[in-house]
Amino acid sequence: MTFQGILILDLIALALLLWVGNLVRRGSLYVGYGVVFIMTTLGVMLILSVPQLLAVIVRVVGAVFPVSALTLLALCFIVFMLIYILTQVTVLSNRLTLLIQGLAIQQAREAGETEREWRG
Amino acid sequence: MKLERILRDHRGDGLPGLAMQTITAPKRRVLIAIPAYNEEATLGEVISRVRAATPEFDLLIINDGSQDNSGQILKQLQVTTATHLCNLGYGRTIQTAVKYALCCDYEALITLDADGQHQPEEIRGLFQEFVNGGWDVLIGSRHVNRQTYSGVPLGRQMGMRLFSILVKSTTGKRVYDTSSGLKVIGRNVFEPLTYWHFIDFHAEAIVYLLRLGYQVGEYPISVATRTKGKSMYSALSHFKYPLKTLLMILLGIVQAGLTRRGNRQ
C-alpha cells in the first residue's frame, strides 16, 4: 500500500478509537463491545503500519492485492460482529422473557391463592 | 428439590424474586391453561364452558399481551390470570403455563385454545385416557381416527403431512395431529419442557420428548371451525413456521441426544 493510503486508514482508525473510547466513557457503549472494537482497530493499524505483516496476510489469504486481503478480513469481522450482536440481542430477549414470565406467574399465584381462600 | 434447582439455574437471568421464594403450595391435581391473545370474541364463552365441564380442575388464563378487551373480560370473570406485559408468542405462553404448573405442584397440565375450536366437554375423556394409558403427553387429535387429512385446506394439509412424516421418520412414531393445541402434559415432562425452548409446542416438542424416551399419544377429538377472531398465523408465518420448526426439530434431536448422554454419565 502507498504511504498516503496507510496514513488515511490510520487516521480513520484513530478517529474510530476516539469515538469508541468516548462512547464507553459516556456509558453509551458497553465496555465489552468497546474492547472488541478497540482491539480490532489496533490490530488493523498494526497490520497497515508493518508492511511485512500485511505481506504475510496477503500470502496466507491467497490474495493478489493487499486491499483484497484487507477487504476479506473486514467482511469476516462484519459477519462476526453481526452474529455477536444478534446473540447479545437474543440473550437480552431471553432475559426479558424470563422476567415477563416470572411476573405473570407471581401475579397468577397471588390471584390463585386469593381465589382459593375465597372459595374456602 | 427439583424446582429449586430450576429456579437457581434461572437466578442469573433476572428472576431473583421468584428464585428465592419457598414453594409451599398445597398439592393440587390438574390445571387447565388457556393461552389467549386478542380473543375477546370467544374467551368468555370458552371459560364458561370449561368451568361448567370441569369444575374440579383449576383454571389459568395466560393473557399474552392482548391489545383488545381480553384483559377486561378476564377481570370481570374473576378467573386466575397470568398476564404477559407484552406479546411473547404461543410457545412462550405455553411455557409460562408449564412453569406455573411446576411452581404450584400440579400433577398434570391441560392446554386448550381460546378460539373456541376445542370442545371443553371432551377434556374429561382426554384426561381419563391420559391417566389410564400412562401417557406423558396426550394430544387431542382431529385426524387420528380417520388417519386422513380430509376437510383441511390443501396448504395446511401438506404441512400436517410433512410434519407427521418427519415425526415418524425421526422417532418411529406416527403422530397425525402435530399442531393440536389441546394436550394433556404430565408432571414428569414439565422440567424438560422448561429447559428446552420451542416455537409453538408442536412437532418440534413432540420429537424432542419422544427422543428423550417419553410416551406421547393421540386421542380423537372433534374440532369446530373458527367463526370469530383472527388466527395467530399471518401470511408470512406460513413460510417462516415450517422452516423454524424444521430447524428446531433437528436441534431438538441433537439436544435430546446430548441430554440422554448426560443422564447416562
Structural description of this entry:
The complex is a heterodimer of chains A (120) and B (265). In chain A, helix 1 (3-25) packs antiparallel against helix 2 (31-49). Chain A is 89% helix and 0% strand. The N and C termini of chain A lie far apart (84 Å). Chain A has 120 residues and is mostly helical. Chain B is an alpha/beta fold and 265 residues long. Chain B has helices spanning 2-9, 16-19, 43-53, 70-77, 90-103, 123-133, 154-171, 190-195, 203-211, 237-264; strands spanning 28-36, 58-63, 81-83, 106-111, 137-141, 183-186, 216-220. In chain B, strand 2 (58-63), helix 4 (70-77) and strand 3 (81-83) form a beta-alpha-beta unit. The longest helix of chain B has 28 residues, at 237-264. The interface between A and B is medium-sized, with 19 and 26 residues.
Query: How would you spell out the order of helices and strands of chain B?
Result: HHEHEHEHEHEHEHHEH
Count of DSSP-assigned helices of chain A = 4
Q: Compute the CA-based radius of gyration of chain A.
A: 25 Å
* Overall pLDDT level of chain B: 84
Mean pLDDT of chain A: 90
Low-confidence regions of chain A: none
Strand residues, percent of chain A:
under 5%
Distance between termini of chain B? 21 Å
Kindly name the structural category of chain B. alpha/beta
Radius of gyration of chain B: 18 Å
Whole-number tally of structural domains of chain A: 2
Largest interface comes to: A-B, 19 and 26 residues
What profile does the largest beta sheet of chain B have?
Answer: 7 strands, mixed
Helix content of chain A: over 70%
* Element pattern of chain A in H and E: HHHH
Q: Please report which band the strand proportion of chain B falls in: under 5%, 5-15%, 15-25%, 25-35%, 35-45% or over 45%.
A: 5-15%
